[in-house]
Inverse folding.
């Protein structure tokens, strides 16, 4: 009880726990754990045989946080910025530090633009996006979707219906845009 | 080569991509034999992590065989079986030199607040990940380790993140003998953290979740006492009642950005992306522990602000500890624990899915279908 000095008694003693749970107490000493102390200098630099790493060639202007002094010597090259989303991303990196909400909100907005741009682009490619196979929703039928969702008291059931809406949104928006554009063309032809 | 590719929120597919080239003298190219999907991948999959680009290959939990090495690589050669920590790190910067591998300053131009992570958006460096047949591994002399010959791939792949992170999470709780430890989240990270808490001498381990099948695993795998928060009006009050109104000595948040249990928090964070993460579990931890307690946060949150109850944390004199896990620092000790049978990582594997069906794997893991706890991904070439 917090209302008096003694700590509540445990149901099991350390000896009982050691007997019941394999490995109980093998890391008992708080000082003898791999992440203690938090900062631990390693003069061998963890196998690094350089003071500062060689620089990876920069094949296109690599966007970077303005909190960095320079481009880091090594970096990922997965998806160079492109299109409108790329312009938003570059602007965000160039303009705002990580401390500014605008930086992250712009990057999130660019992600949404990227998804729409890429989906529209794919319609012109040899492999258009397929919202059905890409969501893996087929597994609902092969892996007990309904039974799993109805089992027990799951707190997430309340927002399950939102997921399809999030997936469908770019398609509905893109469809609407195409419809409006087409109907405008048709109307212009008629007049 | 075949690789998983992100196409937008909730949408991924397998594409034919070029095999990654060596881009730096200390790079290696690894042929992946096993990968896994992590709870962190779900934050990307749901479109929560800023600068997640269409076309990116996810995957920061993988093991494989070295296929090619750059000219300055000394410690690895083609044919070596290696496990690769989820951290991309240089070994030699201010942080790496002091053991903070997850905070490396030389590998992520996109942000200074986070280090490099394979397949984890451009905010974490823009590296393609290991849910593919081949992957580029920078600083091959620093991160990867040969897989001990007695360890199989299924155990090794879980040491590259989930197990190391759970074990690290228990350490940041600063557990002393007899402590009451409450773990929020019975996913792989929470289950490994609960098990690790006993190794550090916990006197009682409680696990909280809302998925009964995972709580059953918490009881059998981690010997924990379990409660389904959806069955209680107020889980904070319940936790007080079962601890003689003192509260736990240590809490571990193994839930992170998409926590359930409060509709408004979940929807503003996970669906509308208006905050960095839904801190429901973190707030429960803050309110349910005793004053002066320590909270270890392993759950991941986005870089934006989140509605955390800081006032209560201050008034209760809590210690909050957290980081991305510096994985390799945990390995020597974890190898011993696995070898001695104290930890059996692959006990949590529920699904083994071929790379070509990875869209289904994500859906199953994300919607928590079919009793899924940890899905492994097996590339065709494996
Ligand atoms: N710090 C690190 O280095 C690191 C490494 C790996 C994973 N992570 C993070 O750890 C978290 C867990 O990862 P995982 O792979 O176990 O994911 P997971 O999605 O399998 O597990 C999360 C669990 O939390 C449960 N949950 C949801 N809301 C809850 C609440 N309010 N209280 C209690 N439980 C709740 C879910 O039902 C689920 O079982 C993720 O946020 C992930 O990003 C961090
Ligand atoms: Zn992870
Ligand atoms: Zn470093």
């Amino acid at each position: 009880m917090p209302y008096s000095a003694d700590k509540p008694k445990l149901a099991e003693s350390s000896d009982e726990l050691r007997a019941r749970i394999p490995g109980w107490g093998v890391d008992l000493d708080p000082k003898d754990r791999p992440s203690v102390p938090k900062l631990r200098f390693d003069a061998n630099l963890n196998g690094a045989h350089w003071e500062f790493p060689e620089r990876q060639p920069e094949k296109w202007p690599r966007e970077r946080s303005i909190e960095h002094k320079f481009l880091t010597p090594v970096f990922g090259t997965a998806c160079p910025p492109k299109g409108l989303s790329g312009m938003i991303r570059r602007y965000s990196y160039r303009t705002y530090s990580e401390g500014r909400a605008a930086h992250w909100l712009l990057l999130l907005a660019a992600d949404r633009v990227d998804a729409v741009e890429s989906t529209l682009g794919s319609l012109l490619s040899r492999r258009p996006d397929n919202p059905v196979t890409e969501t893996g929703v087929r597994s609902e039928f092969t892996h007990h979707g309904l039974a799993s969702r109805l089992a027990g008291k799951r707190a997430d059931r309340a927002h399950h219906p939102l997921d399809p809406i999030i997936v469908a949104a770019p398609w509905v928006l893109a469809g609407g845009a195409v419809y409006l554009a087409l109907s405008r063309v048709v109307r212009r032809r008629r007049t | 080569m075949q690789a998983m590719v992100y196409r937008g929120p909730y949408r991924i597919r397998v594409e034919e991509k070029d095999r990654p080239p060596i881009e730096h003298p200390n790079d290696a190219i690894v042929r992946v034999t096993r990968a896994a999907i992590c709870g962190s991948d779900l934050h990307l999959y749901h479109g929560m992590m800023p600068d997640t680009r269409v076309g990116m290959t996810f995957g920061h939990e993988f093991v494989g065989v070295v296929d090619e090495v750059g000219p300055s690589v000394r410690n690895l050669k083609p044919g070596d079986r290696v496990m690769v920590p989820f951290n991309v790190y240089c070994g030699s910067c201010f942080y790496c030199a002091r053991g903070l591998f997850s905070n490396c300053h030389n590998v992520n131009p996109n942000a200074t607040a986070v280090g490099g992570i394979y397949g984890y958006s451009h905010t974490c460096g823009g590296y393609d990940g290991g849910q593919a047949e081949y992957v580029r591994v920078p600083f091959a002399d620093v991160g990867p380790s040969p897989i001990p010959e007695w360890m199989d791939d299924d155990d090794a792949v879980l040491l590259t993140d989930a197990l190391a992170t759970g074990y690290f999470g228990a350490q940041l709780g600063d557990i002393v003998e007899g402590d009451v430890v409450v773990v929020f989240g019975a996913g792989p990270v929470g289950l490994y953290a609960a098990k690790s808490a006993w190794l550090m001498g916990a006197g009682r381990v409680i696990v909280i979740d809302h998925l009964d099948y995972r709580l059953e695993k918490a009881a059998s795998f981690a010997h924990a006492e379990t409660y389904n928060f959806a069955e209680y009006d107020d889980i904070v009050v319940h936790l007080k009642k079962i601890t003689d109104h003192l509260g736990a000595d240590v809490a571990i948040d193994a839930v992170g950005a998409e926590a359930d249990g409060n509709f408004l928090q979940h929807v503003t964070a996970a669906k509308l992306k208006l905050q960095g993460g839904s801190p429901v579990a973190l707030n429960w931890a803050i309110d349910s522990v005793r004053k002066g307690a320590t909270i270890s946060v392993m759950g991941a949150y986005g870089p934006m602000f989140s509605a955390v109850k800081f006032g209560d944390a201050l008034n209760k004199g809590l210690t909050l500890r957290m980081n991305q896990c510096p994985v390799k620092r945990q390995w020597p000790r974890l190898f011993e624990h696995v070898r001695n049978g104290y930890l059996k990582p692959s006990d949590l594997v529920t699904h083994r899915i071929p790379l070509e069906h990875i869209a289904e794997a994500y859906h199953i893991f994300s919607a928590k279908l079919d009793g899924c706890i940890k899905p492994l991904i097996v590339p065709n070439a494996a």
